[in-house]
Amino acid sequence: MTQPPAVVVRDLHVRFGDVEAVSGVDLSADHGQSTALLGRNGAGKSTTMKVLAGVVPPTAGDVRVAGHDAATDALGVKRVVGYCPDVGGLVPRATPWEHLQLSARLRRMDDWEGRGRDLLERFELGDVAHRVVGGFSHGMSRRLSVVLAALHEPSVLLLDEPFDGVDPLGVEATLEVVADARARGACVLLSTHLRDLALEACGSAIVLRGGNRVAAMQAAELTGEAYRALLD
Amino acid sequence: MRSSTEPRRDGWADAVRDTAHLVRFRAGTVRRPRATVVGIAVVLLLTAFAALGPASVDAGATGSAAVDRALATLQGNLGSAFVGFLLLAIGSAVGSGGGRELLSRSEAAVHPVSPVTEHLGALLLAPVNLAWMVQLWALLAVTALVTPSDRLLGAQLVVVAWVLLATAAGQAVGWLVEGVRRTPHGVLAVRVVGGAVVATLAGLQVAGVLAPLARALPTTLLTDAARTGRWPLAVLVLLVLAGVVVVLGARPARWALAQPPREELRVQSGVHEARPAPEPRRGSPERALLRRLDRGSVWRSVGMRRGLLVLGIGPGLVALLAGLEWSTVILLPGLTASGAALLFGVNAWCLDGKGMVWRETLPVSAADVFDVRTLVVAECMAAVSGVTVLLALLRNGLPPLTVGVAVACCWAVVMGQVLSAVLTWSVRAPYSVDLSSPRATPAPHAAMAGYAGKLSLVTTVTAMLFTGLSTLPWAWVPAVVAVPFLAWSTRKLRRARRRWLAPAERARIVLTVAAV
């Protein structure tokens, strides 16, 4: 039997006052697949991600994440999603371990400490696990955000600009997290400006422009020239 | 290294010009300019009222010996009150790490803002402070009350000139202490010296020589001169001194700002070993964990921790040492609770900073998040105002029943008023701020001035009402009067909570606070 898509978005509109950040996006993403979300600044990628994470309610349209309606069951969405926001995403005066502890307890995880430690080591954050994150560099904060998104092995993993300012070892660890998630059947949506890394991490790609979807294709088909043409 | 041909960028002319640019930039970012103008007008009106209003009361004409005694006491202590203002200015500047900043540290980092500009900005922002405004109004009001009407203008000009000098001096001392604090072992040195100063003052008070000593200071001569024809000379001398102190204050500012902020850096790189998840006897473990995180966000901030300690201990020590009567003590919980709320409560979500987006992705009910944050704000307010009441209790002993009920009811009422007001503001007008520096404020300066003015006015008027009720022979009256106040605050708080629970509203707050 075919599994329904993990993420289904139909005619999504998001409006902030007079500004329409997303105007009619359609997309679907399957379990066990990773999909890149590409586009220029202001294309609506991060806002779409925030809707999928249950942070911003859709103004109009239908958004289902692992079967949960984002408009009416935001709490259900938050339980199944792991989200790395595009900016910051960390409470400045808490330690990485406290972030992990809160995330795990609110998701009723009992044996999370081993996985938490393992992820921190993989992202080379083990030695700063008990230091407040206010003093972290941008790259360290990004890496910790990926760790937090992956901790509970979510069925939908949303990574918004996870490679931004991250060193090569951090990029490698993030690619591993994406591969692991896909291998256990999770749906991965990855938003980035870096086409090459998107192609490395994802099997398919969706390009947004001006709050609309302008293309959906296999990642391999997204050559540099094709991508450039879609952005203009 | 600066080239010998390169113009110097930290001269006074450049600093004045840069300060003007920063003020214009700040003014341009005010969200509600009309409300700001109204707020400034209200503050000016209140100042004018404090300066002129009491003069229309001919207290001496009552013929009452008690009133005459009270007037004589006020007149005799006016010089001490001048010293009190100076101590307040020093305390404010020291507590806020050298004074407020026109541009936050992260915003200013990419601009060539000189220490002299920082110094001038801090001086300009010194009045944006609840305690500063209340003290100014008190000085003006007392002066108006004890000065003959034909001498009033001169006397009030002396007050204004003194306030300018004291603010400049406080600022200079603030930079000096901040400079010391930023040296190796400086935090310890500041704590030891601060403790010694408090202990000395306490010792003088216990020995009964503090009040005579304060009255013997030159400020008493100054207040006497203010009521004579010598006031122009006094004003001139004070203004010249203020100018000199402003210029001299730039030196410690340069020294302090050239050093790394050790205490903040230590806190930012602070290690906090893992603790097991809390298992509370009452309430859910999740709420307990949220509470722990929120409390950590407060107490791990240098500015908030320092502010809470100063607010908790300062007014309490005054109540303890000066032997304030319950009729005065009743004013303090509202003011200290307001002060605590102004540290972060007026923009309560800013505790999470950019982490607010991540917190919003956690599977926890929005109601729990609101309730826990409200509780943590209330805890801070209750802690600082509670210390004040406790120290007053130690000094005065148990009050008579009616007074005791009035104090307890007033405390509960002002707590409710402040809590409901600040949570309403937090939901209605959130701001993205970085509170890593103790010089930062949880909202823009214009908004902070508005918040401070509203809170001080409401809590002072409420406290005055309960002071009146405490003189009645019926102990039940204050309790009955408190009920509608508490009901109104509860209604207001519930309305703020409902607004937070609406997903679209919450998203607006989250995105604003996280600045994404």
Automatic annotation (TrEMBL), chain B:
<feature type="transmembrane region" description="Helical">
    <location>
        <begin position="472"/>
        <end position="489"/>
    </location>
</feature>
<feature type="transmembrane region" description="Helical">
    <location>
        <begin position="35"/>
        <end position="57"/>
    </location>
</feature>
<feature type="transmembrane region" description="Helical">
    <location>
        <begin position="446"/>
        <end position="466"/>
    </location>
</feature>
<feature type="transmembrane region" description="Helical">
    <location>
        <begin position="120"/>
        <end position="146"/>
    </location>
</feature>
<keyword id="KW-0812">Transmembrane</keyword>
<feature type="transmembrane region" description="Helical">
    <location>
        <begin position="400"/>
        <end position="425"/>
    </location>
</feature>
<feature type="transmembrane region" description="Helical">
    <location>
        <begin position="330"/>
        <end position="351"/>
    </location>
</feature>
<feature type="transmembrane region" description="Helical">
    <location>
        <begin position="372"/>
        <end position="394"/>
    </location>
</feature>
<feature type="transmembrane region" description="Helical">
    <location>
        <begin position="152"/>
        <end position="176"/>
    </location>
</feature>
<feature type="transmembrane region" description="Helical">
    <location>
        <begin position="188"/>
        <end position="211"/>
    </location>
</feature>
<feature type="transmembrane region" description="Helical">
    <location>
        <begin position="307"/>
        <end position="324"/>
    </location>
</feature>
<feature type="transmembrane region" description="Helical">
    <location>
        <begin position="231"/>
        <end position="250"/>
    </location>
</feature>
<feature type="transmembrane region" description="Helical">
    <location>
        <begin position="77"/>
        <end position="99"/>
    </location>
</feature>
<protein>
    <submittedName>
        <fullName>Uncharacterized protein</fullName>
    </submittedName>
</protein>
<keyword id="KW-1133">Transmembrane helix</keyword>
<keyword id="KW-0472">Membrane</keyword>
